[in-house]
Amino acid sequence: MEKALAAGNATEHTHRPALKTFVEGLSAGIVATNEPKHIECGAPDFILRKGSVTVGYIEAKDIGKSLDEAEKTDQLNRYRDSLTNLILTDYLEFRWYVNGECRLKARLGSPTKDGKIRRDKDGIQAVAELLTGFLSHKAEGVGTPRELARRMARQAHLIRNLIINAFKNEPEGGSLHTQLAAFRDNLIPDLSEEYFADMYAQTIAYGLFAARCTSKNGSLFTRLDAAQNLPRTNPFLRKLFQYIAGYDLDDRIAWLVDDLAQVLAQADMEAVLKDFGKHSGKEDPVVHFYETFLKEYDEKIREMRGVYYTPEPVVSYIVRSIDHLLKTRFNKPQGLADDKTLILDPAVGTATFLYMVVNEIYQANTGMGQQGLWNNYVAEKLLPRIFGFELLMAPYAVAHLKLGLLLQETGYEFQSDQRLGIYLTNTLDEAIKHSETLFAKWISEEANAAARVKKDEPIMVVLGNPPYSGHSANKGEWARQLVERYKTIDGKPLGEKNPKWLQDDYVKFLAFGQWRIERTGQGILGFITNHSYLDNPTFRGMRQSLMSTFTDIYILNLHGNAKKKEVAPDGGKDENVFDIQQGVAICLLVKEQGNTEPGKVHYSELWGLREGKYKALFEVDIDDTKWDKLKPHSPHYLFVPRDEAQAEEFERCWKVTDIFPVNSAGIVTARDLLTIRWSEDEVKDTIRDFASLPSEEAREKYYLGDDTRDWKVALAQKDLNDTKLNSNLIAPVLYRLFDIRYTYYTGHSRGFHCMPRGEVMRHMSAGNNLGLLTVRKTPPSSGAKYFMATRLIVSNGAIRSDNQSIDTLFPLYLYPAEGEMKFEGGHRRANLNPEFIKTVSEKLALKFIEDGKGDLEQTFGPEDIFNYAYAVFHSPTYRTRYAEFLKIDFPRLPLTSDKELFKALAAKGAELVALHLMESPALNKPITKYPITGSNTVDKISYDDNNQRVNINKTQYFEGVPPEVWNFHIGGYQVCQKWLKDRKGRTLTYDDLTHYQRVIAALKETSRLMAEVDKLISGWPVG
Question: Quick check: 711 and 646 in contact, CB under 8 A?
Answer without folding.
Answer: no
